[in-house]
Design goal:
mainly alpha, 3 strands, binds zinc ion, Neurolysin, domain 3, 505 residues, globular
């Protein structure tokens, strides 16, 4: 009898999952293919599919099935599909049912509409044009928070959507550690002679694309399951383990797109290596955004900015761009791609300053939510803190408050996961190196199979069966996010490049 009820639950969840993937596809299309005039109708289409998915998921019958099945599910193995599905979906259901479907649809609609407003406003650096859309989104987010029992920290509700179970106070403690230990590192480096900077040069776009594909194909991108397309703000998406779509953003005068592509490959690989038996359930994706970001940052930085990596790929890079890289060797290039320089744009920032960009956003988001900073004050507040944290002057809002896509989509509470991901990546990397002693040699030979397999076995295949702390425990040996390994890693790397002390004094 219970088995039949479980099958009924699965059937219902499979429909919700299909609707969710349909939304992902509509949204991918909006950001990659759709002409701008399609935006208004697309917002309605997304809102409709989103509302139907929300109504199906929060239906009382789903709640009844979950309740009936709870005892039966607990008698199964913790990692079994039966136990995991009922356990995780019960939490999801309990959160989702508090949100009226009309509000859910409004959040989706405004998010999609604002996206186009943001693209236009950013291209003209016109914050005033974006302000009304941002206000609508912020008001909806506040209404969303009010659906729950808000404790001392309304921000907890939002953070939990992206990093299950994480509390604002925990993030604050971690970020205070970074302010005390990572920020001084940036100052130490700034006092040294910078890396050998080159003048303006050109990397033809078609060649960039060809080189990137060569790299990610070595990583494990295969054309039967993956796509790579250009977009405004790079992201990874797809409809299942056999349909992974990554995007990047090209510029003629630098190779940022290469690093964006490696980054998005890391996200894509996590989704690609989820156990296929979980498909069409809410378990078939990465367990949290922080965990996801640990994967993207690992491929982008721990692999893609490492000496062994460039030992293998630099000769090909130079062959591809002989004019731009005339006079370079692998060592000079390694120093350049690891140069530390406080800068305006988060996604282009280096490993040492990146987390400071996040701390700024984390603080502003809480103040926006509490009304301590108004939307009118936001650009000035942004610029003031950029100076305080990074000592850079913001020339215009396109390079300041308008640079990120997130707030246009109503995504508040998302940013901290980027910094958490950086920290987690170093925790996992320590474990990985212990388990695969030949890792550096393999990377230097352009071989990534054992790295990929290790990630699948220890991490990716579980999907959302386990919570972020449970997964961290399995993959790194502790349930706690620890900022120390990341700061240690950074200091070690920068001591080799800038000659700062290898250990903190
Ligand atoms: Zn990412």
């Amino acid at each position: 009898m219970s088995q039949e009820r479980f099958d009924e639950l699965r059937r219902r969840l499979a429909e919700v999952s299909d609707l969710g993937k349909t939304m992902a596809l509509l949204s991918w299309d909006q950001q990659v293919m759709m002409p701008p005039k399609g935006a208004e109708l697309r917002a309605e289409q997304l809102a409709t599919v989103g509302r139907i998915a929300h109504e199906r998921f929060t239906a009382p019958e789903v709640g009844r099935l979950l309740e009936e099945l709870s005892g039966w599910a607990e008698r199964h193995d913790y990692d079994s599909l039966e136990a995991s599905l009922v356990r995780v979906v019960s939490q999801d259901w309990d959160k989702a049912r508090r949100v009226p479907s009309e509000l859910r649809a409004a959040l989706t609609r405004e998010g999609a509409l604002s996206h186009q407003v943001w693209v236009d406003a950013r291209s003209r650096s016109d914050y005033t044009a974006f302000l009304p859309a941002l206000r609508k989104n912020l008001d909806l987010v506040k209404r969303y928070v009010e659906c729950f029992d808000v404790g001392e920290e309304p921000y907890d509700i939002l953070l939990d959507d992206y990093e299950r179970g994480m509390k604002t106070t925990e993030v604050r403690v971690i970020f205070d550690y970074l302010k005390a230990h990572q920020a001084p590192l940036v100052q130490e480096v700034a006092a040294r002679n910078g890396a050998d900077r080159s003048g303006p040069r050109t990397f033809p776009l078609e060649l960039q694309r060809r080189f990137e594909l060569e790299v990610v194909r070595r990583f494990g991108f295969d054309d039967a399951c993956w796509r790579l397309d250009p977009t405004v703000h790079p992201f990874a998406s797809g409809t299942g383990v056999g349909d992974i779509r990554i995007t990047t953003r090209y510029a003629e005068h630098n190779l940022e797109s290469l690093f964006a592509t490696m980054h998005e490959f890391g996200h894509g690989l996590y989704e690609h290596q989820v156990d296929p038996a979980l498909e069409r359930t809410p378990l078939a994706r990465g367990t949290s955004l922080g965990m996801h970001e640990s994967q993207s940052r690992m491929w982008e930085n721990l692999v893609g900015r490492s000496r062994p990596f460039w030992h293998h790929f630099f000769p090909r890079l130079q062959e591809t761009f002989p004019d731009a890289l005339a006079g370079y060797d692998a060592d000079r290039w390694y120093r350049e791609v690891n140069a530390v320089e406080p800068s305006l744009i988060r996604v282009d920032s280096d490993e040492a300053t990146y987390n400071l960009h996040i701390i700024l956003r984390f603080e502003l988001e809480q103040e926006l939510l509490a009304g301590a900073v108004s939307l009118e004050q936001l650009p000035d507040e942004w610029n003031r803190r950029m100076w305080e944290y990074l000592r850079v002057e913001v020339p215009d809002d396109a390079h300041g408050v308008l640079q990120d896509v997130h707030w246009a989509g109503g995504a508040i509470g998302y940013f901290p996961t980027y910094a958490l991901g950086n920290l987690i990546s170093a925790q996992i990397w320590d474990r990985l190196r212990a388990d695969i002693p030949t890792l550096d040699d393999e990377i230097a030979a352009g071989e990534f199979e054992s790295l990929r397999d290790w990630l699948r076995t220890h991490m990716h295949r579980f999907g959302r069966k386990v919570s972020p702390p449970e997964l961290l425990e399995r993959v790194a040996g502790t349930p706690t996010i620890d900022p120390a390994p990341y700061v240690r890693y950074l200091r070690g790397k920068l001591s080799g490049i800038y000659g700062i002390a290898p250990e903190a004094s």
